[in-house]
Write a structure and sequence with these properties.
Helices cover about 85% and strands about 0% of the residues. By secondary structure, it is mainly alpha-helical.
């Protein structure tokens, strides 16, 4: 096994975890902003008319709506990038003896399975999965990435 390709594949696929974490952060921010909007809207409707407060609240709500749109857009970009990586895995060309490696990639990086869950699913030993199959799978990804940059 070639460490260069294994590391290249690992770095590429670890982006999925980073993207998942960023999407979770986006969802948390959206929930907080929407909660604030709900509180402000409720108090805005309950407050008597007149004065500059209503304009200030209205301006603040517009800013919050812009933040929501910006975060939703960012979330869409993250989702697209994650989809591109997952599609790369699905489109990975492997020979029949490498199918198990592709299956490991799908289970780990698309279905978000732990190595324990992969062990339960595939019935290969945990050690064999983590020390042999997963590194081989990463190497396949690294080589495919290298080939795709040569073709571009």
């Amino acid at each position: 096994m070639n460490r260069f390709y294994i590391n290249k594949g690992k770095k590429y696929l670890q982006q999925i975890q980073t993207l998942n974490e960023k999407m979770i952060q986006c969802n948390l921010m959206l929930n907080e902003i929407k909660k604030d909007c709900g509180k402000i809207t409720a108090s805005y409707g309950a407050s008597p008319g007149g004065g500059g407060k209503n304009n200030d609240i209205s301006d603040y709500l517009v800013k919050l709506e812009k933040q929501i749109a910006k975060i939703e857009h960012q979330k869409g970009e993250l989702f697209k990038k994650k989809g591109d990586i997952q599609q790369f895995i699905f489109n990975l060309k492997v020979n029949p003896s490498q199918e198990v490696c592709k299956r490991i990639l799908i289970l780990k990086y698309i279905n978000n399975k732990s190595f324990d869950e992969i062990y339960d699913t595939t019935h290969y030993s945990y050690s064999y999965i983590t020390k042999t199959l997963h590194p081989r799978a990463l190497e396949l990804v690294g080589k495919a990435l290298e080939d795709s940059t040569k073709c571009s």
